[in-house]
Amino acid sequence: MHKSIQELAPRISDCLKVIFAMQERGQKISTSAVSEQLGVSDATVTMLFKDFAEAGWVEHTPYHGVRLTALGERKAMEVIRHHRLLELYLARELGYSWDKVHDEADKLEHVISEEFEDKLDALLGHPTVDPHGDPIPSKDGVISLRKGCTLTQLQDGQSALILRVSDQNSEKLCYLGQLGLYPETHIQLVGRAPFGGPVRILVGEVPQQVEQMLGTELAEQIIVTLPEAEEMMIK
């Protein structure tokens, strides 16, 4: 467990990423929740949790399952840095669409060397975000979280800028791409249907705005930012 990322089994790296993502969202990191994300048995995740605890990567928190320790977060940052740099490289340099880069990066993140990572970082201009707007950890394991609110938290008539899309499902990303809902895109919430119905939004900048309808489930995966004065209104 004290090996480099390249020497770890892919399942170990994948588990670290899942724990970090769930921890970031404030979710309970239980055996069943992680096993569902990884597509493996509860017994497999239980053994991974046991190995992680022995390595000092996680500790058990009552009512919250496991949580990464500082050492565990650093290890997770190594994996995530590889993954997100690769996603950006695939999108920017090889022309992959943003709904395809996640699965390809999953395959490659375990095998690239630290030298390759450094050259990739330099080639891309030392980027800070990946194609989905997710922050790329620095070489020393520091990550700058991009805080915002979900699209559904906007008030009718409010405008915002998309920061990131937190869902990695390729079909959902493909659909959002068809609607033009990429990071750094301007949007405006027009209104919402009652009883949890879809939201109506304007996508793009005036006067090229296009009206779109978006289901609540997907709208909650879109993280946006808005002017500081307006941000105070939703807190």
Account of the 3D structure:
This protein is α+β, with helices and mostly antiparallel strands and 235 residues long. It has 9 helices and 8 strands. Strands 3-8-4-5-6-7 form a 6-stranded antiparallel sheet. A two-stranded antiparallel sheet has the order 1-2. The radius of gyration is 19 Å and the shape is globular.
Task: Chart the SSEs and their pairings.
Elements: H1 10-24, H2 31-38, H3 42-55, E1 58-61, E2 65-68, H4 70-92, H5 101-108, H6 114-123, E3 149-150, E4 159-165, H7 170-178, E5 186-192, E6 199-203, E7 210-214, H8 216-219, E8 222-225, H9 228-231
Antiparallel strand pairs: 1-2, 3-8, 4-5, 4-8, 5-6, 6-7
Principal-axis shape equals globular
Strand order, sheet with most strands: 3-8-4-5-6-7
Order of helices and strands: HHHEEHHHEEHEEEHEH
Binned, the helix content reads 40-55%
Largest sheet: 6 strands, antiparallel
Uncertain runs are 229-235
Distance between the termini: 42 Å
Total helix count?
9
